[in-house]
Design goal:
The chain is α/β, with parallel strands linked by helices. It has 14 helices and 27 strands. Helix 1 runs antiparallel to helix 2.
């Protein structure tokens, strides 16, 4: 069953049930089906095989997404947090014949060299949109996308050229079903999307899960969620949005969770009425999860990969093991290699666009981890991030960083030490803390770490790591190369001082 067929079933059995709510109105399931059908007519007339979408979260995004999937059109979401260079790469690689946009002027300013002058107006879900044709072959030969691919989602990665993960509905639907069951999603739930719908985690875990369950999906513009630019966050505004929307479920990134927790701690107000909130997309500080619990937020950590349909494991109220990322969804099988790498088996993704197609049923995640006797997964870091000290010791920096961020004085940390005699860190100091607090925190952490993993030198970051300055991916992972480039002189300076002393 496709997501459109599922919406149709709800429209037949509970037509008046609210499906979407946004500042401009609402759609029940019967009306949502009609809007999807209208979007299908718009897409049929275009004859596009590959369509890029450049819209803010709203009913038009949802209708176009589902309509494209039902028609077998490959949809390519364009994340707002991508740089112009990354967007050019996406359009060149996919060979999208058109972009449907709610901000064509901005689009032309960023990727105008790949857009033709042909532009027509259309309406989807009563929203005026622009259909902008592209010069699909400009700059490079576009890759042929297999007809069974419904979506190409681009990982934000650590370079200027993210990879295009090719997904079919056959891979996404087991994730959707597994999440509905794990979360206990029902028609009584109200899910507030806190991430852009172009982010796969929200697209699958928010949109598809809500509509599959017959629940209500709440869509707010970024400013109403307290988001500004690609990384600015007003935690008080996000708390207000959660409260006023009467959301029962939401998905946080570590950044948004921290903002909400800090706002709740400062205000002392009652928590929003969430019954379940997931946090994922990047490693989460155990201290942050503890603070969230103390603030009354029912937050559960999960783990996933775009290559595996966004979610692999999830803690739930019934099965929760703090410190782990939960147990795998029912369709997933995990194993750990002799080198400690997490291998995921289940419904395989179809490969990266432009590379050889995949046939293997397993995916080597690149993550280091352990499984306990009850199947809970504990992550230890990224295999490619492991560095080797001058003494030949392997260190997974995420492990050390998690220990550091358990300390209230340390908001964020990036640890380095490749070929060095000791490890150094770039540290974002928590609000209200000072250098002596960080020194005391390092001393406490170093007492529990083995000598080769201890952090003996550190520099103060000139601001939080965020998406806008290129130091975080869109889901909150540290761009290590970018942090190292930004603070190279400071890092080299402290190593030089250590040699002199």
């Amino acid at each position: 069953m496709t997501i459109f067929e599922r919406v149709t079933r709800h429209a037949e059995h509970c037509p008046g049930q609210t499906a979407l709510v946004w500042p401009g109105g609402r759609l029940d399931y019967a009306a949502l089906r009609r809007q999807i059908e209208a979007a299908m007519q718009v897409l049929r007339e275009s004859a596009a095989e590959v369509l890029a979408i450049d819209l803010e979260s709203g009913p038009a995004w949802v209708a176009i997404d589902i309509a494209a999937m039902q028609l077998g059109i490959c949809l390519v979401p364009l994340p707002a947090f991508f740089s112009a260079g990354q967007l050019l790469h996406v359009l060149r690689l996919t060979g999208a014949q058109a972009v449907i946009s709610d901000a064509p002027t901005r689009l032309r300013r960023r990727v105008g060299e790949l857009l033709s002058n042909a532009e027509t107006q259309c309406r989807v879900a009563d929203q005026p949109l622009s259909w902008v044709e592209t010069l699909a072959s400009a700059g490079s030969r576009p890759r042929r996308i297999p007809g069974s691919v419904h979506k190409v989602t681009f990982t934000s990665g650590t370079t200027g050229e993210p990879k295009g993960v090719m997904l079919s509905w056959a891979q996404m639907v087991p994730v959707v079903r597994g999440l509905v069951d794990a979360v206990g999603m029902t028609a009584n739930d109200r899910h507030l999307a806190l991430m852009p719908l172009a982010v796969l985690l929200e697209n699958i875990g928010g949109v598809y899960v809500s509509l599959w369950a017959g629940a209500t999906l709440l869509l707010l513009p970024a400013h109403a969620l307290g988001m500004s630019g690609s990384s600015g966050l007003d935690g008080r505004r996000m708390v207000q949005a959660l409260d006023e929307s009467q959301a029962s479920t939401a998905i946080f990134t570590p950044q948004t969770l921290q903002g909400v927790v800090e706002a709740l701690e400062l205000s002392g107000n009652a928590r929003p009425g969430l019954r379940f909130a997931a946090v994922g997309g990047a490693p989460v500080s155990p201290r942050l999860l503890q603070r969230a619990g103390a603030s009354g937020l029912p937050v559960f950590e999960g783990y996933g990969l775009s290559e595996c349909g966004s979610v692999v494991c999830l803690n739930t109220p019934a099965y929760n093991r703090p410190g782990s990322v939960g147990r795998p969804l029912p369709h997933v099988r995990l194993r750990i290699t002799g080198e400690g790498e997490v291998v995921v088996a289940g419904q395989p993704f179809m490969g990266y666009l432009g590379e050889e197609s995949r046939s293997a049923s397993e995916w080597h995640s690149g993550d280091l981890g352990e499984l306990d006797a009850e199947g809970y997964l504990y992550l230890r870091g990224r295999r490619r991030n492991v560095f080797i000290t001058a003494y030949g010791r392997n260190v997974a920096p995420e492990w050390v960083e998690r220990e550091l961020m358990l300390e209230p004085a340390i908001a964020q940390a990036a640890v380095f030490g490749e070929a060095r005699a000791h490890n150094a860190a770039v540290i974002v100091i928590s609000r209200g803390a000072a250098a002596p607090d960080v020194e005391a925190a390092l001393a406490r952490v170093n007492r529990i770490l083995p000598d080769y993993a201890r952090v003996l030198s550190w520099v103060t970051a000139d601001g939080p790591f965020c998406v806008a300055d290129g130091l975080l991916t869109g889901t909150g992972r540290i761009r290590r190369d970018a942090v190292q480039r930004r603070y190279r002189r400071d890092i080299e300076s402290i190593y030089s001082e250590a040699q002199i002393s």
